[in-house]
Amino acid sequence: MNFPIPFTKMSGTGNDFIVIDHRQPLIPENEQASFARQVCRRMFAAGADGLILIEASATADFSWRFYNADGSLAEMCGNGARCAARFAFERGIAGRTMRFETLAGIIKAEIIDGLGPDRHEVSLLMTAPFDMRRDLTVTLDGQNKTVQFMNSGVPHAILFIDKGEDFPLKKWGRAIRMHKMFQPAGTNANFVQVLGDNTIRVRTYERGVEDETMACGTGAVASAIFATMAGHTVSPVRVITSGGDQLTIRFDLTIDSNTTRADQVFLEGPARIIYEGQLTAEALR
């Protein structure tokens, strides 16, 4: 591994990432998980919710590898994908519209106007959600709670919470994340409050970070779809994140006697470049 390694720090509605142009490999594949764990440590290194490696692709504009802060390789991350798209656009790797490979499949993205002339929002066409499971029961602090589940790129459980209700997010989030019905992969846990005016607030306990994050794009998608299935909202749905930013979720929902599915699912929101720098070998110690 040759140091220093150039990187860009980016934020998607409070989810922050270390993004590295890895089209010319810099980090051996067998060292990438350890590298992610170490450079994502807050206070001791650059600190982030995840590491994004932008790589070459034979079938799309580029490919990526996404590592959670604990070094686990993730199939998809909506906020990270928006940051990857903005990074690729700014570096000339892709045009304003693009396609890139993820473990969840090919993702289509478009840079759209927003936040001023030198900043951009990104719209992602997500892979179609699957493995929808309705009205599952989990026991939290001795109380039976009803959760919904889908894979919107990664697995997500949804628990609706009354507006203003106080609850132990980290305790309940970890209990849902580790629940036996979601093993062996585990799940992210989303706590959703319906605010009215076609708006929901979503707080997410993220698998791989093992704590609440300031936003989760795939969690916002799953939450918006289930809120609409329950009759609380209609597309497009505004999602207020833990960090106070807003995401917009658009989709076509089909509910009939034979199937329930969401198609043409778009995730829209800001992707901000925070700073650029170089990682030294001391970030790994």
Account of the protein in words:
The chain is of the alpha+beta class and 285 residues long. It is built from four helices and 17 strands. It has helices spanning 32-39, 78-90, 169-177, 217-229; strands at residues 5-12, 15-21, 50-55, 62-68, 97-102, 105-113, 120-125, 130-140, 143-151, 155-160, 188-196, 199-206, 211-213, 237-240, 246-255, 260-270, 272-279. The protein has a 17-stranded mixed beta sheet that branches. The chain starts with a strand and ends in a 6-residue tail after the last strand. The mean pLDDT is 94.
Task: Looking at this protein, list some descriptive labels.
alpha+beta, 2 domains, 285 residues, 17-stranded mixed sheet, Diaminopimelate Epimerase, Chain A, domain 1
Question: How are the SSEs ordered, and which strands pair?
Answer:
Blueprint: E1 5-12, E2 15-21, H1 32-39, E3 50-55, E4 62-68, H2 78-90, E5 97-102, E6 105-113, E7 120-125, E8 130-140, E9 143-151, E10 155-160, H3 169-177, E11 188-196, E12 199-206, E13 211-213, H4 217-229, E14 237-240, E15 246-255, E16 260-270, E17 272-279
Parallel strand pairs: 2-3, 4-5, 10-11, 12-14
Antiparallel strand pairs: 1-2, 1-17, 3-4, 5-6, 6-7, 7-16, 8-9, 9-10, 11-12, 12-13, 14-15, 15-16
Please provide the count of β strands. Answer: 17
The major β-sheet equals: 17 strands, mixed
Total discrete domains: 2
Helix/strand-derived category reads alpha+beta
Q: How many angstroms does the end-to-end distance come to? A: 14 Å
Q: What's the CATH topology label of the largest domain?
A: Diaminopimelate Epimerase, Chain A, domain 1
CATH architecture of the largest domain: Roll
The geometry reads as globular
Q: Percentage of helical residues?
A: 10-25%
The H-level CATH homologous superfamily of the largest domain, spelled out, is Diaminopimelate Epimerase, Chain A, domain 1
Radius of gyration in whole Å, from Cα?
18 Å
